[in-house]
Design a protein that fits this description.
With 160 residues, the chain is of the alpha+beta class. It is 32% helix and 25% strand. The relative contact order is 0.18. This is ABC transporter ATPase.
């Protein structure tokens, strides 16, 4: 059951998938159609999940579920991961590797393996003030407050 993202409570569970490359506008439009279709029929134990999405920067797929209506369960979470894996195959991209870092370099959004990000820190190519995307957040409140933050205010701070 697809709902407006802005109507979901702050406690709604959230998953963020970052792409290892920027999607084209055409690809993102296709993904949006597929994502809407998936969420409209997404269910847990036969009950539709009050869910929504946001697509950001031609790079991020954000899925949220109102756990008060119906909690996402193991099987429903597995089906969402299968959906994301299908996108990975269709577009030949990586959306599930959490060991990559996405961050802003001016107006550009960069994506690097963690080891390269650590080297950039050492070389002072990124700083504590570099805006990073903290994809480990768990709910919409954290998404609104802590998704795009200076590196010093996220789990990335351990590298400085």
């Amino acid at each position: 059951m697809l709902v407006d993202f802005n109507t979901l409570p702050e406690e709604s569970r959230i998953w963020i998938y970052q792409c290892n490359r920027k999607f084209s506008d055409a690809e993102f439009a296709e993904i949006e159609i597929d994502l809407k279709s998936f969420l409209e029929s997404w269910a847990a134990h036969g009950t539709g999940l009050a869910s929504s999405y946001q697509l950001k920067y031609n790079r991020f797929i954000i899925i949220a579920v109102d756990q008060e209506v119906q909690a996402a369960t193991g099987c429903s979470i597995d089906s969402s991961v299968e959906f994301i894996q299908g996108l990975e195959k269709k577009y030949n991209v990586d959306l599930l590797d959490k060991m990559n870092v996405t961050f802003k370099l001016g107006e550009h959004i960069a994506h690097k393996p963690l080891i390269d990000f650590k080297k950039m820190v050492k070389d002072k190519a990124v700083t504590e003030n570099t805006i990073v995307f903290n994809n480990l957040i768990n709910n919409i409140q954290e998404y609104n407050e802590s998704w795009e933050v200076p590196a010093i205010d996220s789990w990335h701070s351990r590298f400085f």
